[in-house]
Structure formats: C-alpha cells, structure tokens
From TrEMBL:
Protein's GO biological process: DNA-templated transcription elongation; regulation of DNA-templated transcription elongation
Pfam families linked: GreA_GreB, Rnk_N
Superkingdom as given in the UniProt entry: Bacteria
Annotated keywords: Kinase, Transferase
UniProt name for this protein: Nucleoside diphosphate kinase regulator
Domain Transcription elongation factor GreA/GreB C-terminal positions: 50-123
C-alpha cells in the first residue's frame, strides 16, 4: 500500500511548526508529526478541499479490524476529557492530518503494532464552514 498524499493549509502548517518549535525534539509525537509536515502539500485555507482532515476537523474513520471511530483532531492544549478529541501529536492524530475521504494509511501504534486507518468521512471541517483563522 502506498502512502497517501497529504494536504495541509498554510494556517495549520504554520501553527504546527510553532508547536513543534516549542517542544523538546525528543517529546512524544514530535518526530512523527515533523515527518508528516515535511511530505505535505501546503495550500491556502480557502483552497483546501472539503474532504481533507484539517486541524479542528471531526472525522469518522475505520480501523483495520472494521471498527470505526469519530474524533476531532486538536492541538494538545485543546484535548478534553470526553474522549471525542485526539491530539495531533498522538500517533493516530498524526495519521489523520491531511488525509482525505477514502484515503487509507498503515500507521504504527504506540505498542509497536501496525494498524490500517481509512478516512470514511470528514464530518466537520472549519475551512468548509468559512472559518479560516481559528
């Protein structure tokens, strides 16, 4: 399986770069997110396709075992206790960023296992709603 293309808005890219710069290089998730940003296509927020997972998007995705989850991709400071958010620094968070509906990626889990993740639907995307500076 090939690695799907990533698309990230300039707003998200700039904020994520600042986040990475503020963290120790060996902090959990920093290296993985940095590598994802390095391979991403960067576009203006208004040009981001409606089916791409951006920061603060709510996405429904399926695991390789057939189970599905719906989570909102957030910055670490915005994690809540409801279990409906996931940090972009978490392994699955980094995997979701920049993918589009229908994309599938193989991704390492914290325990070392690999999981297949498929984007089923972007339920909410700020850019789709005209929210470009969040």
């Amino acid at each position: 399986m090939s690695t799907p293309e990533l698309t990230i808005s300039t707003t998200d890219f700039d904020r994520l770069e600042k986040l990475l710069d503020s963290l120790p290089a060996d902090a959990v998730g920093v290296d993985t997110l940095s590598k994802e940003l390095d391979r991403a296509n960067i576009v203006e927020p208004q040009e981001l396709a409606n089916n791409v997972v951006s920061m603060n998007s709510t996405v429904r995705f399926s695991w390789g075992n057939g189970k599905s989850s719906s989570l909102t991709l957030v910055y670490p400071k915005d994690i809540d206790k409801t279990g409906t958010t996931i940090s972009v620094l978490a392994p699955v968070g980094s995997a979701l960023l920049g993918l589009k509906t229908g994309d599938t990626i193989n991704w390492p889990l914290p325990n070392g296992d690999m999981s297949t993740i498929t984007i089923d639907e972007v339920l909410y995307q700020p850019e789709r709603e005209g929210i470009f500076h969040r």
